Each structure stands twice: as C-alpha cells, then as structure tokens.
Amino acid sequence: MKTLHRFIPLLLALLMTAQTACSLRSADETEGPDAPETISQQNGDSQTAPVSDPVSDPSSDPAPGVDDVIETLPVEITPVTPAAQPEEDSADADFYPDGLFIYGDAVYSQAYYSETNSRFFAQTAQAYSLKFGTRVSVVIAPLSSMVVHSAKLASVIPDQKIMMEDMKAMTDPSVNFVNTYDALAAHDTEYIFFRTDHHWTQRGAYYAYAEFAKSVGLTPTPLENMTYAVRNDSYMGSMYQFTMDERVKTFKDQVEAWYPTKAHSMVTVTPQGETISYDSSIVSVNNTYVTFIAGDNAFTTITVPDNPPDMTCLVLKDSFGNAFVPFLCEHYGTIIVVDPRWTDENILDKYGGMNFTDIIFVNNIEAANSYVWSKLYMSLIGVQLPD
Q1: 3-state secondary structure of 47
Q2: Residue 48 lies in a domain
C-alpha cells in the first residue's frame, strides 16, 4: 500500500505534463510533472502538493540584472535554530496517509525504498559515464526524517542510512557515490531541513556539497568565507498545503543563503522556452526556495570567469539540486544544469562535445528510488526505457 500510495500522485501528475508544459507560470503558480496541486500564498510563495519527487517553482517574470543586493544579517541577529523535538521519547507523532508526520514543531518526510528502482538509477548513472566518457557522481539528498532523534519513531521510520548503503552497493565502482548521509548526520542538530517545507535548507545542501568536493579532490570553501543573508525570515513552505494542519502555521522557518565568493552570471531557459539572464545564482526576484538558481528550469548555464575554463560540470537534478548548485561556483568555470522534467532534447547531442570534468546527479532519495526519474534521464541520452 505504501508503494501504491507513493506512485499514484506521480503517475497522475505525469499525465498533466503535456498540458502544463505549454502554460505560462507566474510567481504564484507551480505546475509540473510532479506537482499536481498548487496554492498561492499572500506573499507570493508557491507551494506544491506532496509527491515522491518534489518540484519548486521558477518565477516566470523576473527582472534581470537586479541580483546585486545582498541582505546581510547583522551579527546580533540569531538565525533560526533546528526544529525542537519533544524531550520525552514517549511523545507521539501525528502521521498522515502520505507518510508525512508532525513531531515537535516540524513536519517531516519519510523515504521508502525500492531495490528494483534504485538499480535502474544506478544503471542510469553508469550509462552517463559510458556515454559521456567522464567522471559521474551521485549526490543523494536524504529526507528530513533522518534528523528525528527518537528511538520510538526509529522503529517505524525507514532507515535512510541503510537505504543509501544498499544503493551504493549496487552502484558500479566507476561511479562516485557520495556519502551524503554521514556528512549530514554529523550536523543533524543544525538547521539543515526546513520545518514547513519538504526541501533541505541551503545549509544542508552545503554539507552535501562539501562531501562531494572532497570526494573529487576539490577543497570546499568554508561557509564562513561566504556572504550570508536571510532571504526570508518568515518562510512558509509546502507542508501546510500538504497537511492542511493549522499547527504548521506556527512553525518558524527562514530561507538562508550563502553567496558564492566569485562573481558569476546565470542564464536560464524556462519550461516555456524563454531565456532569462541573472547576475547571480541566488536571485533577488523571489525570496522562497526559488531564490536558488531561479527554481526549476529546463536548462541553466552559469559562467564563472575567475575559475579555470576547462573546469566544467553537468548537473542533472530535481529541486533539491537547486540549493546545491550555487556552491559549485567555487570551482567550475561553466556549470550546466538540466532538469529532465522540462525538456526532451537529447543532451548527448547538445553537450557531448563539452568534455565535462564532472557529471553530477543531485536527487532526493525518493527520486533516486523512482523508475520515472531513471526513465526521464535515460531519454535525454536517447535510451528509451519501457513503460
């Protein structure tokens, strides 16, 4: 039943793709292959309904060239702390049919494992390595339930560490499977997941980036070397719409951002084919999770003049990858980002001659357990998996 419940909304949403891909989206509209329901908040935030492969909303009418205003926090302002969990381990969690649950002052997401689908994902990563002839890394974002410190809940919540160990075991040794779980677990008392949204925070994405960088011989830039800003100090993410539980409105969230140390520019191609230019990978036209690389777009190209031009990477991602990508500006001269939900172009034909230094898959653990995502990725290199 868990598996059936998990895939029904995704399959229904995929049926909407043809219609939604050709409709314009405003700053308070979100539609996509994995976003069957939307809600427009008074502050313009876009929220999507819960499915196995979450999506964030690209802003459709941004004014380019206005991203140089950085709202740096004064030193004396204290950032949001991690979610508070009940002191008594006997405290109950309130579970919803889709697997979400409220515990303490946050809503948490669980992950469910499919060995068959994970094997397809592993084969997909290996196929890219063979097709492009370059190093491929897999960066998996765990879901927020990993930070719940409750022996009682641990007995009923799937163990994402075990899932990732199994996923790594079935991944070909030629593929760099990054140990993101332990990297985040070492900081699980920090603010690495939102309370009211299904994504990790950019702080959480940083620890995954740092582990990736070390795994490929790069030196991660310390967070303290980057300019820190709070893009939104009263963020309400997707979880209220998912649960419709009034308690969620009382949970406190911020959208924190760390700006890369090197000047760079970004060009996106929206799902509708519009080309938009920005002067930063953290955009000022939206103060939600969409602030990171302007949300989900078909193609994103980031150019960092101060980095070596022969350092290039291709990022294949879901919306969890959005908060991860800006950190790559510390190392790569050119960063190409592709979201397979918004294009059917053959990227082997499009980018095969670029001789990428790295290809990086950045997906949440549920997407990496979804056959649909493997099918989308393989279609981009001309391989059609069966329905």
Answers
A1: strand
A2: no
Alpha helices in the chain (DSSP H): 2-15, 17-20, 115-132, 151-154, 160-169, 180-185, 202-215, 239-243, 321-324, 347-351, 371-379
**Opening angle at CA 3, ends 364 and 368, nearest 5:** 20
Please report the pLDDT score of residue 121 as a whole number. 98
Domain membership of residue 100 (yes or no) is: yes
- pLDDT for position 90: 55
- The three-state secondary structure class of 204 is helix
Residue 121 belongs to a domain: yes
From 1, 237, 195, 234, select the one nearest 102 (Cα to Cα): 195
SS3 content of the chain, % helix, strand, coil (to 5): 30, 20, 50
Angle between helix 115-132 and helix 371-379 axes, rounded to 10 deg: 20
Residue 43 placed within a domain: no
Series of mean pLDDT values for 10-residue runs along the chain (387 residues): 39 33 30 30 31 37 35 47 68 89 95 96 98 98 96 92 97 98 97 98 98 98 97 96 95 97 98 97 96 98 98 98 98 98 97 96 97 98 94
Domain coverage including residue 313: 61-379
Can you tell me whether residue 318 is helix, strand or coil?
coil
**Taking the model in full, what pTM does it have?**
0.82
pLDDT at 92: 84
Hey, CA dihedral for 67, 198, 122, 146, is it positive or negative? positive
Domain count, the chain: 1
- Please report the pLDDT score of residue 69 as a whole number: 37
CA distance 338 to 299: 5
239 phi, psi to nearest 5 deg: -70, -25
d(CA 47, CA 55): 9
Q: What is the pLDDT of residue 18?
A: 32
- Whole-angstrom distance, CA of residue 131 vs CA of residue 120: 16
